[in-house]
Write a structure and sequence with these properties.
single chain; 2 domains; two-stranded antiparallel ribbon; 11 helices
């Protein structure tokens, strides 16, 4: 009998003992195993990403159920987390959209097809609730089309930028600062913090 065959038979006939031995070994070498795992992930990022993708695809329903349970038990957690990590979340979304442009177009088309009129209704609702902001955005877009304004790179990092308004007063509609989505979101977060402190 070979060593491999003997090992297989032993594990089959002594499952509890083998499980206990494995548990003890893991506890005794936990830090070492964690470090090896971390080093492997750092050296093989593409493989790690693919494994995560496959695992998520195979357990999507379980993850969705876990998310629903967590949100039900912690109703304010997601809102508080997003508020505390707004700039980080905006950067993650921007990076994902930049890396998957075709997927984003397909998603938008599917959403509009599945919810006809909803996007337009949401836009009209926002416009009604924020008339000054809407007119400021409209004025900037119109000025760009007419050549009055020329889009510039982000003044912080040089990336593709959006027009940011420090003020939505009528005489400030064309007074814009060019910031990428990451720094744009960060600036609005700063302004909201300043408003809270001043209140």
């Amino acid at each position: 009998m070979t060593n491999a065959e003997y090992s297989r038979r032993y594990r089959a006939s002594h499952p509890a003992e083998v499980a206990e031995q494995s548990r003890k070994y893991y506890v005794a070498h936990r830090a070492e195993r964690i470090e090896k795992s971390r080093a492997y992930r750092a050296a093989h990022p593409a493989e790690e990403a693919e494994q995560k993708r496959r695992h998520y695809a195979a357990h999507r329903a379980e993850y969705a159920e876990q998310g629903r349970k967590f949100r039900a038990e912690h109703p304010g957690y997601a809102r508080a987390y997003r508020a505390a990590h707004r700039a980080e979340e905006a950067e993650q979304k921007r990076a994902y959209r930049a890396a998957h442009p075709a997927e984003q177009v397909g998603y938008s088309r599917k959403y509009r097809a599945a919810h006809p009129g909803r996007a337009s209704a949401l836009a009209r609702k926002w416009q009604a609730a924020n008339p000054e902001k809407y007119m400021a955005h409209y004025t900037v877009q119109s000025a760009i089309k007419r050549g009055i304004l020329t889009p510039q790179p982000c003044r912080v990092c040089g990336d593709v930028a959006q027009a940011h308004h420090e003020s939505y007063e009528r005489d400030q509609w064309l007074n814009v600062d060019w910031l990428c989505p990451k720094h744009h979101a960060a600036r609005h977060l700063e302004l909201r913090d300043m408003e809270r402190l001043a209140a």
